[in-house]
Amino acid sequence: MTGRDVRIGLVALALAGVLVGCGKGDAAVEAPRPVLVVHPVAEDGRADVAYAGEVRAREESALAFRVGGKLVRRLVDVGDRVHAGQLLAELDPGDLQLQAQAAQAQLAAAQAELARAGADRDRFAKLAQQQLVSRSALDAQNAAYAAAAGQARATRAQLDVARNQAAYAQLRAPRDGVIASRQAEAGQVVAAGQPVFVLAADSGREVAFAVPESGVGNVHAGDAVTVELWNTPDARLHGKLREISPAADPQTRTYAARATLSDAGAVTLGQSARVFLDGAGADRQLSVPLAAVQRSAGSTSAVWVVDPSSRRLHLTPVHLGAWDEDRVPVRSGLRAGDWIVAAGGHLLREGEVVAPVDRENRPVAGR
Length: 367
Fold this sequence. Notes:
Elements: H1 3-28, E1 33-38, E2 41-42, E3 50-57, E4 60-64, E5 69-74, E6 81-82, E7 87-91, H2 94-129, H3 135-167, E8 170-172, E9 177-182, E10 189-190, E11 195-201, E12 205-212, E13 224-229, E14 232-244, E15 254-261, E16 272-277, E17 286-289, E18 293-295, E19 301-306, E20 313-317, E21 319-320, E22 327-332, E23 339-341, E24 354-357
Parallel strand pairs: 1-24
Antiparallel strand pairs: 1-23, 2-17, 3-12, 3-16, 4-11, 5-7, 5-10, 6-9, 7-8, 9-11, 12-15, 13-14, 13-16, 14-15, 17-22, 18-19, 19-20, 19-23, 21-22
C-alpha cells in the first residue's frame, strides 16, 4: 500500500466519523410521543362524564301579535340585534282602525244619550219641586240617567280596547337582545299568539344539555360544571348547574338541564359544547384504568401525570385501593382535574415531553 492510499483511507475514515456524528445528532431530536390521557373518574361516575350541549340564551321569548291579521311588514331578520321598544313587524291595521272608529261613534252616541237623560232628569226635578209630577216619575228619570251614564262608561271602555287592538298591530321588542329565529313572512296571515320571532335576551348565556336516567341521581342544582366549546377545545369555561327537570322527556327518557356560565363573553348562540360535571370533592374517591398504573422505585404504585402547560411527564406515587376488573380506586395522590396517561406508560420516562390527546384524538395541552 502506497502513501497515497494511506492518506485516502484516513480521509474516508474521517468523513465516515463526521457522517456518523451527524446521524446521531439528528436522531437525538425526536418528535414528542403521542400519549392517550384521561381524567380520573369518581366512583359515582361524575368526574369524567361529559354531555353534549348547546349554548342558549338565559331568556328566550317567542314574540307574537296579540291580535290576528295579515303581516304586511317585517323589519328585522335572524341575527339582528334589537333594543327594547324597537318595531319588529306590522299587521294590516285597516280592520282594527275601523273597529276603533266604530267604537268612537258608539261613544259619541252614548254621550249624547247621557246628555239628554241628564236634561230630562233636571227638568223633572224642577217639576217635582213644584209638585207637578209624581215622585215615581222623577225616580224613573234618575234611573234613566244612571243607565245612560253606565252605557257611556261601557262604550268608553270599548273604545279604549279598540285603540289597544289597533296598537297591537305593531310588534315591538320587549327587551334588548338578538333575533334567534324567524317564523313568519310578510304576506302571511297570522293568528293571535302565533310566534313570529324568537328573541334571545341579553340576560346571560347558558348551556342546555340532557342527563340520562343512569346519572340523574348524581346531579343536583348548584353543582359546579366545566364547559368546553367545540370550536375552542383548548379553553374551558366554568359554570354552575342552574336547574334540572324533575321529569324525564317521554321520547328520549333524559332529563333536561341548564348550566349558567360565569364568563360568557366569548360564546355565541347555538355553539356546540361539552359539559363536564365536576366531581372533585375532597371526600370523593377517584379511580384510574388498570393500564395507567406503573411500578416506581420501592415497588410503590404510581401513574404518569402530564403537565398541560409544559406537556412534560411526572411519575406521581399514588395509594391504591382494591383492584377491579378494569379500574382501580386511588385513595390519595391524584386530583380529579389531573391528566393521566391511560396506557403505554412502560415506554415513557420522567420529564419527557409528550403530545397528550384525549379519547377523541384531540390535543389537551393548555386546558
